[in-house]
Design goal:
By secondary structure, the chain is an all-alpha fold. The chain has one domain. The longest helix has 35 residues. The N and C termini lie far apart (37 Å).
């Protein structure tokens, strides 16, 4: 019963912060590991539990996405390939190697969450100065997106923030369209990764469904509370939580090594 309440609460809170400020994986992924799910399986399960929110969010921006329907097939194709490679790499890495990489992945995602806004602002300025990119620039942008989607298939946390940075660099300026494309690409990466995870029996279905249920409820509640809650305060909460969780994983992973 305790595990059920913990996972549902993590999903509930994660779904709320994802809807308002982003960063829900900082809550749901550690919760899955806390109940005893191995790191690789916890990461795969977290991707499964997060996918519903991406899909519903992308649908909410369908009108904005229609304005970019010409370039979407290319972006989706790149996301598809990147997600496949990222999920495959996750399943190839030894469990212990992935465990030791978790603190660094969380640190990377935390820094992106904290400084993502500044990065996006800087990239928007850069993109307005260089709107007519060369053929080499186009190729580099495609490679950048591919790398982002590989990261998303490998480790879910922080993908949305990096994708927004990419879209700013690519010259997108409408925030609604950017959020819609971000969620669409996250959905594609998550879905293709889930298929690979299912084939390799990497998803903890019982725990994942509990987190998913909580996330759906949390997203629904947040939709009604988003106008009343301060996004600034929610963002501060996520930053503090992500810093604390990252520090915990560094201590948990390396304290024993240092002491020996």
């Amino acid at each position: 019963m305790f595990e059920l309440l913990l996972l549902f609460s993590a999903g509930l809170l994660g779904g709320m912060v994802n809807s308002i400020a982003g960063g829900g994986s900082f809550i749901t992924f550690p919760a899955l590991m806390f109940v005893g799910i191995p790191p690789v399986s916890a990461n795969a399960t977290n991707t499964f539990a997060s996918c519903g929110g991406y899909l519903s969010g992308a649908y909410a921006f369908k009108d904005d996405l229609r304005l970019h329907k010409k370039e979407l097939p290319k972006l989706i194709f790149i996301a598809l390939l990147g997600g496949i490679l990222g999920a495959w790499l996750l399943l190839q890495i030894p469990e212990e190697a992935f465990r030791t990489s978790i603190p660094w992945l969380l640190l990377f995602a935390t820094l992106l969450f904290i400084f993502g806004g500044r990065i996006n602002a800087s990239l928007k300025k850069l993109s307005t100065r260089h709107r007519h990119a060369s053929a080499i620039g186009t190729v580099l942008l495609a490679i950048t997106l591919f790398g982002i989607c590989v990261y998303g298939g490998f480790f879910n946390a922080g993908q949305g923030i990096i994708t927004l940075s990419y879209l700013a660099l690519a010259g997108y300026t409408n925030i609604n369209a950017m959020n819609g494309i971000k969620l669409l690409l996250s959905t594609v990466v998550a879905l293709v990764a889930i298929v690979i995870f299912i084939y390799n029996d990497a998803i903890a279905w019982y725990e994942g469904l509990i987190v998913l249920t909580g996330a759906l409820v949390g997203g629904f509640i947040a939709a009604n509370l988003s106008k009343k809650l301060s996004q600034h305060h929610v963002r501060i909460f996520v930053i503090l939580a992500s810093i604390g969780i990252t520090i915990y994983f560094f201590i948990d992973t390396y304290a024993g090594t240092v002491l020996t």
